[in-house]
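Researcher: Let's walk through a ligand-bound prediction step by step. First, I give you the protein sequence. Second, the SMILES string for flavin-adenine dinucleotide. Third, you return the three-dimensional complex as structure tokens. Ready?
Model: Ready.
Researcher: Here are steps one and two:
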Amino acid sequence: MTYIPILISLVLASASLHAKAQITAAVSCASKYEIPVQAKSGGHSYASYSTDGYNGILMIDLENFNSVSLDNKTGIAAVGGGVRLGNLAQGIWDQGRRALGHGTCPGVGIGGHFTHGGYGYSSRAFGLALEQIIGLDVVLANGSFVKIDNETLGDAYYALRGAADSFGVVTTFYLQTSTAPEVIKFSYSFLQGLESIENATAVFMGVQNFSLYSPVVDRNLGLGVTLGGNATSYTVHGTWFGSSSVEPTDWITSLAMLGGEGNLTVPLHGFLQQDNFYAKSVSTNVSFAEEPIRKFFEYAYSAGRGLNAPISWFSIINLYGGPDSQIGAEGKNGSWAAYSGFDDLWGCRICHERSYNAYLNYIDPELDRDEAWHLYYGKPLFERLKSLKRDLDPGYVFWNPQSIPVWNDTWVL
Ligand SMILES: Cc1cc2nc3c(=O)[nH]c(=O)nc-3n(C[C@H](O)[C@H](O)[C@H](O)COP(=O)(O)OP(=O)(O)OC[C@H]3O[C@@H](n4cnc5c(N)ncnc54)[C@H](O)[C@@H]3O)c2cc1C
Ligand SMILES: *[C@@H]1O[C@H](CO)[C@@H](O)[C@H](O)[C@H]1NC(C)=O
Ligand SMILES: *[C@@H]1O[C@H](CO)[C@@H](O)[C@H](O)[C@H]1NC(C)=O
Ligand SMILES: *[C@@H]1O[C@H](CO)[C@@H](O)[C@H](O)[C@H]1NC(C)=O
Ligand SMILES: *[C@@H]1O[C@H](CO)[C@@H](O)[C@H](O)[C@H]1NC(C)=O
Ligand SMILES: *[C@@H]1O[C@H](CO)[C@@H](O)[C@H](O)[C@H]1NC(C)=O
Ligand SMILES: *[C@@H]1O[C@H](CO)[C@@H](O)[C@H](O)[C@H]1NC(C)=O
Ligand SMILES: *[C@@H]1O[C@H](CO)[C@@H](O)[C@H](O)[C@H]1NC(C)=O
Ligand SMILES: *[C@@H]1O[C@H](CO)[C@@H](O)[C@H](O)[C@H]1NC(C)=O
Ligand SMILES: *[C@@H]1O[C@H](CO)[C@@H](O)[C@H](O)[C@H]1NC(C)=O
Ligand SMILES: *[C@@H]1O[C@H](CO)[C@@H](O)[C@H](O)[C@H]1NC(C)=O
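Model: Step three, the predicted complex:
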């Protein structure tokens, strides 16, 4: 392995066949000279795996793969691998008043977000972003450019939906869109919840009870609790699909409001807005008992973590499952996609080892490789991914510090 102490960045011309041939050539060349490759879509990886997170990789920048094209008869959208979520949402709305379930931030890229889960308030109705993929155009490690789906190269299709960073460069996504619903956006700040740990705990237990047992909860509800501004605000946020005596807003306006910028459209070129932060995630398939929630608030409100926090922080708790949630509705077992998040709902595969796992899109660079693999994927899925890596990319063409290994090795750059 030759160590090359620079980041090599390749921005491709356009989504034409010519540009696809350029990706094929770049991947083949990198493979020949043993230079690991990572695609860059929105560049929003928490660990900067697509950008400057690691020296010596070849970054393939998909910025110019920016087309959004809706077939308004089938509702299938063909979307370039570098499209940002805001431009995706605006594009399918403009072309046919269609919607997809995905996260809220307009600048996030389709490439990372859709292939590693993808959660937003609409996910309980539409499923995770990943569940709306029906086909992919991809350049594989051997340089071949192929269209894959559940019937063609099914193993690659499986692996790319959950572990794309380890298996290829997606140039086009084929996505099943839905009719855009009417949306009621709500938020409520629990000022009394800030007054004491008892109140904070009681509010949380009440929200959890509502989401698990209230007869009005179905897939139309998206819900999250945010402890913001170093625990100086405590808010329940969400959306409800439907109209009522409250005036609903249309889908696209609700997305612009959730995105926080008042505008979903993101510049197609040179959009490099950046924040520095560190994040951790935990997902679980069990409801919380009062005691751990109390402990969480004791920690959050203890000296030096409120207004006097040494650094700025926030925490978000999102409802994933609950009555009628469509997340995981398609693939209740591990043969559907390389994604273990579904098992949080249907019986987490790693629960005999741990009672929680971690979210792939909130990548945590502090985890060591073994811990990351087991928290992200769980053992059976990880074993299957290693075997697929041996078939599809035995030479580590696609690599980042936590990517799928070929064996139980700790191959590092
Ligand atoms: C401000 C902000 C808000 C966010 N909000 C949400 C949210 O609401 N919900 C949520 O679920 N997540 C959210 N996230 C997390 C986000 O989903 C992930 O960081 C996601 O992986 C970013 O995708 P990207 O394409 O922008 O990132 P990139 O950094 O471009 O890519 C991330 C990883 O995916 C690989 N990759 C990218 N494109 C491709 C491709 N075309 N083919 C193969 N591999 C590819 C990269 O090589 C890299 O390893 C947010 C992140 C940020 C920074
Ligand atoms: C679907 O596309 C056709 C052709 O572009 C257009 O005439 C029609 O208005 C579109 N339908 C919707 C619902 O946008
Ligand atoms: C590349 O790998 C894919 C998937 O295994 C396979 O279908 C294809 O034939 C391979 N192409 C070449 C040129 O080896
Ligand atoms: C593949 O997906 C299509 C479209 O969703 C579906 O009709 C078909 O039954 C699926 N095939 C398999 C083998 O799962
Ligand atoms: C807690 O909430 C109740 C209302 O539910 C309120 O009366 C009380 O003042 C709050 N504060 C404390 C410190 O308990
Ligand atoms: C939640 O519901 C359970 C069972 O229905 C009940 O015992 C408990 O008191 C409720 N807690 C709150 C905070 O509403
Ligand atoms: C949180 O604390 C940090 C560090 O003390 C500070 O810079 C930041 O402004 C605080 N945030 C809020 C919303 O109070
Ligand atoms: C939204 O942003 C785009 C460019 O990113 C700009 O062209 C457009 O005018 C903006 N629209 C509004 C309403 O601000
Ligand atoms: C797992 O899911 C796949 C795809 O949905 C399905 O074909 C298969 O029958 C399922 N297996 C089991 C054991 O349920
Ligand atoms: C959570 O996962 C465990 C372990 O697989 C399983 O036994 C349990 O039934 C699951 N609970 C729920 C509510 O799905
Ligand atoms: C890899 O490690 C796992 C435990 O993490 C073990 O079960 C498996 O047998 C190992 N495989 C090889 C090929 O060493």
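Researcher: And what stands out?
Model: The pocket of 2-acetamido-2-deoxy-beta-D-glucopyranose (ligand 5) is lined by residues 192, 195-196, 198-199 (CB under 6 Å). DSSP finds eleven helices and 15 strands in the chain.
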